[in-house]
Design a protein that fits this description.
The complex is a heterodimer of chains A (112) and B (117). With 112 residues, chain A is an all-beta fold. Helix content of chain A is 0%, strand content 54%. In chain A, strands 2, 4, 5, 9, 10 and 11 form a 6-stranded mixed beta sheet that branches. Chain A has a 5-stranded antiparallel beta sheet with strand order 1-3-8-7-6, with no helix packed on it. The radius of gyration of chain A is 13 Å and the shape is globular. Chain B is mainly beta and 117 residues long. Chain B has no helices and 11 strands. In chain B, strands 2, 4, 5, 6, 9, 10 and 11 form a 7-stranded mixed beta sheet that branches. In chain B, strand 7 and strand 8 form a beta hairpin. The chains are: A mainly beta (112), B mainly beta (117). Chains A and B meet through strand 4, strand 5, strand 9 and strand 10 of A and strand 4, strand 5, strand 9 and strand 10 of B.
């Protein structure tokens, strides 16, 4: 079963626009991670935010975490055609050790 | 610095057969996890190996088994293949240093695409 749910399922934007996607989860977590997957490839780690953090930045990425609402958001600013991919949130918890639980993902298409 | 490598990249089998998939973790990593990703879905955790033992297991039947070798590489074995086993199988590695694998990002290989006819 999926722990997280991403919203929206699909997003189509033009280059230069911002892309925002959301993730909700069900159980308490130690951290939440975002991954990108290009078609037919493996997942690439983007950013990890711990449960005691509220916001984190990495380049054009901004992630927020609200543990009271069990939700997170990923913002990609000034998107590029190369950002076209599926984006997944995954949660980790201390008692699950290294097991990650993924959502179904948001498919992002950035057109030039 | 080699990342996670998986072999083979593609595999076609028929129902009832058995398959073995292989994974070499990123250099310096000691923990290997396996995930199954059906088309259009997120990865589902199968199991995780550390110190040559299965440490965590997801909701998969015991047709799915694995092994970790002393050099940290790992194998995933699936017996009595079903049509529903068709998926991308992903291997991910992480390190137990820095507070444990639950506190570390996982590094994924490009997967093995398994098709069952």
């Amino acid at each position: 079963s999926q722990q997280g749910e991403e919203d929206p399922q699909a997003l189509s934007i033009q280059e230069g626009e911002n892309a925002t996607m959301n993730c909700s989860y069900k159980t308490s977590i130690n951290n939440l991670q975002w991954y990108r997957q290009n078609s037919g490839r493996g997942l690439v780690h983007l950013i990890l935010i711990r449960s005691n953090e509220r916001e984190k930045h990495s380049g054009r990425l901004r992630v927020t975490l609200d543990t009271s609402k069990k939700s997170s958001s990923l913002l990609i600013t000034a998107s590029r055609a190369a950002d076209t991919a599926s984006y997944f949130c995954a949660t980790g918890s201390t008692d699950s050790w290294g097991k990650l639980q993924f959502g179904a993902g948001t498919q992002v298409v950035v057109t030039p | 610095d080699a990342g996670v490598t998986q072999s083979p990249t593609h595999l076609i089998k028929t129902r009832g057969q058995q398959v073995t998939l292989r994974c070499s973790p990123k250099s310096g990593h000691d923990t290997v996890s396996w995930y199954q990703q059906a088309l259009g879905q997120g990865p589902q955790f199968i199991f995780q190996y550390y110190e040559e033992e299965e440490r965590q297991r997801g909701n998969f039947p015991d047709r799915f088994s694995g092994h970790q070798f002393p050099n940290y590489s790992s194998e995933l074995n699936v017996n009595a293949l079903l049509l529903g086993d068709s998926a991308l199988y992903l291997c991910a590695s992480s390190s137990t240093t820095g507070g444990g694998p639950h506190n570390q990002p996982q590094h994924f290989g490009d997967g093995t695409r398994l098709s069952i006819l």
